[in-house]
Amino acid sequence: MQLTQRRKMVSNKTLSFSERLYLPAILGGMFTTFKHLFKSKPTIKYPEQKRPMAPVYRGQHVLKRDDEGAERCTACGMCAVACPAEAITMESAERKKGEEHLYREEKYAQTYEINMLRCIFCGLCEEACPKEAIFLTDRLVSTDFDRNPFIYGKDKLVEPIDERVDVSKRQTPEVLEFKKRPGLKHNTTALSKLHSTTNA
Ligand code: SF4
Ligand code: SF4
Q: CB of 60 closer than 6 A to ligand 2?
């Protein structure tokens, strides 16, 4: 049964004398090689040399903290649902009293993992996140000889409190304008929420 229209008829024509010598084909190939000797080389000596990256390059993810250092992720699972590679898994937990400085919402991600071998760096997790908790950054995922190190947990994903990861290049003027809209509460920090309820 014919499955596609892409079949090609194979020619059985007999080779001419010059074709049987293979010399013209060899010389043609050498000429092509020689031509490329004088062209500028597309390869670079990485890691000594590095190419300039696009400001919105999609590399290793970061799980952001808010201005007061609390983790923004609320383990809603939207990123995992949006991920076409099924690379994200997480387990949620309930925030306890006194942990407001650690987690911004009542629910947080107890574990959060991204399988970097599955990830295709499409950025859909970032787009799906309603809490501005996950961003892709211009950092490269490290290479390794084993598979296990490519499962990135919270230890590698959550930004260190004293070493914030700059994602401002991904915050386009349109996004920043959108965030100023009245009624959008997702940028209110946990501690400021707590203060406003205490003062009320
Ligand atoms: S960048 Fe794309 S593939 Fe990678 S974790 Fe996010 S949604 Fe999944
Ligand atoms: S990173 Fe964002 S979308 Fe993913 S679970 Fe956390 S809050 Fe939800």
A: no
**What pLDDT was estimated at residue 6?**
80
Instruction: Decide: 158 in ligand 2 pocket, CB within 6 A.
Output: no
Tally of domains within the chain? 1
This prediction has a pTM of 0.74
Residue 43 tokens, joined: 């390869």
| Index of the ligand 1 atom closest to the CA of residue 58 | 1
Q: Whose CA is nearest to atom 1 of ligand 1?
A: 121
Q: Is the C-beta atom of 88 inside 6 A of ligand 1?
A: yes
CA distance readout (Å), 30 to 16, 19, 27: 21, 16, 5
Residue 103 maps to which CATH number? 3.30.70.3270
Task: For the chain, list residues with pLDDT below 50.
Answer: 200
Q: Is residue 23 part of a domain?
A: no
CB 137 within 8 A of CB 165: yes
DSSP for 50-65? Answer: -PPPPTT---SEEE-B
What is residue 193's predicted lDDT score, i.e. its pLDDT?
Answer: 55
What is the per-residue pLDDT for 169?
Answer: 84
